[in-house]
């Protein structure tokens, strides 16, 4: 696995230079995930809406596993121990939305899910506390907290992040689906996600609505 010093050496590349660099060199799926989740993530290149989709597609075409967990230890203190530390992992399914909001973000997340991404992959693992509660989260939980924290003023990455996870089989860690369908249709109808937006009703309930008609087609379960 690449170390952080090696990743930082490539931090000044533009998005198009990253695309060329990845195409011209050989990396393992694990190294590609490390470069994507740390190299591009921490250098801010996932903010490049003009080239984001092409960057993601290049990494996938070159063999990146969208479910590969990349341990996020950039903020790790020397005093932290393996036994006491909670585990937070990045995956491309999370990293791809952290800086960019808008059509490129949602389209890139959808591509990752269509190319094998699993919205039920665990990303945060915490040992149960004294109360026995397991606080671990999966990718769908991650987007749930985005919606919970930012509603009713959601942006595209929050709303479409959770909706696309649901579309491709995502459930909360508890096994509960994040939306309840209000029409006779499967979640796969949301693959055409741009047809839908949300309605926040009195700050109490979030509905997925059809943009053209305003019809409520699903309700957020939280």
Keywords:
alpha+beta, four-stranded antiparallel beta sheet, 8 strands, single chain
Instruction: Give the end-to-end Cα distance, rounded to a whole number of Å.
Output: 38 Å
Q: What composes the largest sheet?
A: 4 strands, antiparallel
SS field, number of helical segments: 8
Return residue spans where pLDDT drops below 50 for at least 5 consecutive residues: 75-80
- In one word, what is the shape? globular
Classify the helix fraction into a percent range: 25-40%
Note the beta-strand portion: 5-15%
Report the count of strand segments.
8
Order of helices and strands: HHHHEEHHEEHHEEEE
| Lateral arrangement of strands in the main beta sheet | 1-2-3-4
Structural class: alpha+beta
Overall residue-averaged pLDDT value: 84
* Radius of gyration, in angstroms, nearest whole number: 18 Å
């Amino acid at each position: 696995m690449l170390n952080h010093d090696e990743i930082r050496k490539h931090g000044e590349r533009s998005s198009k230079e990253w695309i060329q660099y990845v195409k011209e060199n050989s990396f393992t799926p694990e190294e590609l995930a490390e470069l994507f989740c740390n190299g591009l993530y921490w250098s801010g290149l996932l903010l490049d809406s003009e080239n984001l989709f092409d960057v993601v597609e290049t990494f996938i075409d070159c063999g990146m596993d969208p479910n590969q967990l990349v341990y996020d230890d950039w903020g790790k203190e020397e005093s932290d121990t393996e036994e006491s530390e909670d585990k937070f992992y990045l995956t491309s399914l999370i990293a791809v939305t952290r800086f960019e909001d808008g059509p490129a973000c949602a389209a890139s997340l959808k591509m990752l899910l269509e190319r094998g991404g699993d919205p039920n992959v665990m990303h945060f693992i915490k040992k149960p506390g004294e109360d026995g509660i397991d606080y671990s989260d999966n990718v769908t939980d991650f987007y749930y907290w985005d919606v919970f924290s930012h509603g009713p003023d959601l942006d595209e990455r929050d709303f479409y992040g959770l909706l696309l996870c649901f579309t491709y089989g995502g459930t909360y860690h508890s096994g509960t689906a994040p939306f309840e369908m209000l029409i006779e249709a499967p979640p796969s109808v949301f693959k055409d996600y741009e047809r839908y937006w949300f309605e926040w009703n009195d700050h109490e309930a979030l509905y997925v609505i059809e943009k053209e008609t305003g019809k409520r087609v699903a309700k957020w379960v939280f």
